[in-house]
Amino acid sequence: MVSLLALASKPLYDREMLELRSENESLKLKLFWKDYNVHKLHKAMQSGNSFPADAPYCQCQTCVHFKRSVRPRKKGPLHGGASGGSAPLYDAVCKFGPWFASAARRFGLTVKKASWGMHYDSTQLMEHDSNPELEVLDLDCHLVNTDGHEWTHFTYGRRLWGATTADSPELKKLSEFFRYLQRYCLVGDEEFVGRKRRGWP
Questions:
Q1: In 3-state terms, what secondary structure has residue 144?
Q2: The whole model's pTM is what?
Q3: Per residue in 130-176, pLDDT tens?
Q4: Cβ proximity of 41 and 57 under 8 Å
Q5: Which of 16, 34, 107, 141 could pair with 112 in a Cys bridge, judged by C-beta atoms 3.0 to 4.6 Å apart?
Q6: In sequence order, what are the beta bridge partners of 76?
Q7: Where are the domains of the chain?
């Protein structure tokens, strides 16, 4: 026969177990965002411009500035045709930004264009583990581009930061996209098959 003490303590035990599970999920989510936050995606872009087989390896001034590529070795005349020197021949138009957005969509990530100065019906969240340096936006998408087509400034939308568990299918899409951008720089030397980051010594 079940004792009265056991019956009386069961609700308390169940509540403690629920709290422990909740704390565990919260910790797993924090660890996920430590590896997949917006700053880390900026870092992944640096390899994404070079390593995937279909990467554009753009050498526009923006990609060079954000360390997605090195300065072009090919030289051209100085701006305005001035004599007596030469300047790096940058790509005139960024090829990486459109490629990045297209690649994100292939992994099931929805993309929206927005501006930091826009007024939203929904609230802006000032602090979140997914973007500890800036803010996330309450828009129904995964990635929010807040700049031009070069994707220099962006944040996460509700479909990512709104996840309540690290096992969320939406977060899995993001982690798979990360692996795609970084896949050639994460494998061992024996699997690298001679592929090295283009343009780098």
A1: strand
A2: 0.75
A3: 887 778 888 899 999 988 788 888 889 999 999 999 999 999 999 99
A4: no
A5: 141
A6: 87
A7: 4-52+94-191
